[in-house]
């Protein structure tokens, strides 16, 4: 076939996620990707299911019919179902994160040697898994690398946010509608942060939420994703274990503890936390209440020591149930997991 009359593919066609500037352009790029895949909605549903991603055909049709920005988990499942590899999926997630946080993609001049061609956001599609944590470090790294240039949200609550920010999804917190990176501090011990630790009784071996010095709490990074008015998922982003959603455990030796689970789901009430502010603006404190029980998060035995577990219990008004929430700048990057056999 002669090449005469064959139009060269423009790098700025809507199937290129790195050039999408708005939610509508991003969704248009997803539609173009679906057409290019040659798959029907039902076939995409089947392929997503084969990857362990529930993605009904009706959800695909309704999402691609809108102009709003699709949820992150939809983009991940959909692009993988279309046949993309992990590195390419990571680029789509990175583009979505950039648009969600209102940062423009690099132009040809800004891209330096890239000459305007989208630059892969990850070096390798490593797929490291660990119990109860999910997704790949490649995807996480892609999103976090792009996030390095995104909107900084200041320290603590008094920092003002630009007028362009959407309506606050959580009263008293100037969060983006798509969510924000954060640190959660017990109010009595603000030098400590909610982060990964172990059950001090040794009855439960898997990672749980504890309080530890903030300078030692760089990983996992905490992301608050709104799932309803004043209600969020508390996600842990880790370079080795991927993304886990804190989940209230209801039985067994870890009853009432919080564990990061890989099966994040918007309709799992054990992964939803209602944030309630009290006190004057600028010095506000927060109750964090698991939606599944309506109780309050607190420190086990009202302890102030490093390593104390975060637990749910009856709302008592005690000081150990008061938390500070600090919105922080997106992380610069996330380290890749070690390869098997390395030290």
Automatic annotation (TrEMBL):
Signal sequence bounds: none
Compositional bias per record (Low complexity), positions renumbered to this chain: 117-128
Region (Disordered): 1-23, 104-128
Name the UniProt record assigns to this protein: XRE family transcriptional regulator
Entry superkingdom: Bacteria
């Amino acid at each position: 076939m002669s090449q005469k009359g064959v139009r060269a593919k423009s790098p700025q066609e809507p199937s290129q996620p790195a050039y999408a500037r708005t939610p509508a352009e991003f969704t248009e790029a997803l539609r173009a990707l679906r057409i290019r895949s040659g798959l029907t909605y039902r076939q995409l549903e089947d392929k997503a299911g084969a990857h362990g991603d529930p993605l009904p055909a009706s959800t695909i049709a309704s999402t691609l019919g809108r102009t709003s920005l699709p949820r992150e988990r939809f983009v991940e499942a959909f692009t993988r179902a279309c046949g993309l590899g992990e590195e390419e999926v990571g680029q789509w997630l990175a583009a979505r994160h950039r648009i969600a946080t209102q940062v423009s993609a690099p132009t040809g001049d800004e891209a330096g040697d890239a000459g305007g061609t989208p630059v892969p956001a990850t070096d390798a599609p490593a797929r490291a898994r660990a119990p109860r944590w999910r997704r790949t470090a490649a995807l996480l790294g892609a999103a976090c690398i792009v996030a390095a240039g995104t909107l900084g949200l200041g320290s603590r609550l008094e920092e003002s946010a630009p007028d362009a920010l959407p309506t606050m999804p959580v009263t008293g917190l100037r969060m983006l509608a798509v969510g924000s990176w954060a640190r959660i501090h017990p109010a009595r011990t603000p030098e400590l942060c909610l982060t990964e630790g172990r059950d001090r009784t040794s009855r439960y071996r898997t990672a749980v939420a504890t309080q530890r010095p903030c300078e030692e709490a760089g990983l996992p990074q905490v992301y608050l994703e709104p799932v309803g008015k004043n209600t969020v998922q508390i996600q842990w982003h880790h370079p080795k274990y991927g993304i886990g959603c804190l989940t209230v455990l209801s039985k067994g030796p870890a009853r009432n503890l919080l564990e990061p689970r890989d099966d994040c789901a918007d309709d799992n009430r054990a992964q939803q936390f209602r944030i309630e502010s009290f006190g004057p603006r600028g010095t506000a404190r927060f109750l964090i209440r698991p939606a599944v029980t309506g109780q309050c998060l607190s420190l086990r035995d009202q302890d102030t020591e490093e390593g104390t577990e975060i637990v749910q219990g009856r709302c008592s008004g005690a000081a150990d149930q008061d938390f500070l929430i600090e919105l922080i700048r997106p992380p610069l990057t996330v380290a890749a997991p070690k390869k098997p056999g390395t030290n």
